[in-house]
Amino acid sequence: MNALTILLIEDESADRLLEKILAAQGYSVINAAKSKSDIQSLVTQANVDIVIFNIDSPKKYFQDIHYLNQHLALPIIIFAADDTTDTINQIVKAGVGAYVVNGLETSRINSIITIAVARFKEQQRLKSELEKTKSKLEERKLIDRAKGILIKTRGFSEDEAYHTLRKLAMDRNIAIGEMAKNVIAMAELLK
Questions:
Q1: What 3-state class would DSSP assign to 65?
Q2: Quick one: pLDDT band at residue 59, thresholds 50, 70, 90?
Q3: Positive or negative CA dihedral for 138, 144, 150, 152?
Q4: Which CATH number fits domain 130-189: 3.30.1510.10, 2.60.300.12, 1.10.10.10, 1.10.1520.10?
């Protein structure tokens, strides 16, 4: 039995085959939403693990897909008939875990879901790593700016300025980046 809960969004014309396949394979399909539904509110109200679209073309859903990827961080799988280059490029930019064109085969559903979830987790790891790197870079800029202030106002060498910042941070039991912010704020206050 699969422990994943899936929100399934299908076009009005869908024969509900995918819902039956997912249920038969042990997935919990909590809402087989029709295309007229407000997808964003359905996902936020429901406790879902994956969103799967079974639609002709994702074009009318791009806004919802971007929202889901940016704000709710869920794996998204799309089964569609649209294989145009423009659509595929937009889907890739939206961060969709799997885009399957005309490929609704029962034997492949578990593999598609497993791959989409793994790809989603890897994307989340990379996003987290990127955010940490950006944060460290911003902290580094603050430290350099604070060192510059100490060099200019106190006549310190670069090493002395850094060691002063570090000692002040340790004495106050705060991060050096936070101390750098304090030095910059004080310098701006005293201008």
A1: helix
A2: confident
A3: negative
A4: 1.10.10.10
- β-pair partners for 99: 78
pLDDT of residue 23: 86
Confidence of residue 33 (pLDDT cuts 50, 70, 90): low
Q: What is the DSSP letter of 70?
A: I
3-state secondary structure of 84: coil
Report residue 158 as tokens: 């670069």
Range(s) within the chain of domains with CATH label 3.40.50.280? 5-104
The string over 139-153, giving b where at least 16 C-beta atoms fall within 10 Å of a residue's C-beta and e elsewhere, is: beebbeebbebbeee
Other CB atoms closer than 10 Å to residue 45's CB: what's the count? 11
CATH number of the 5-104 domain: 3.40.50.280
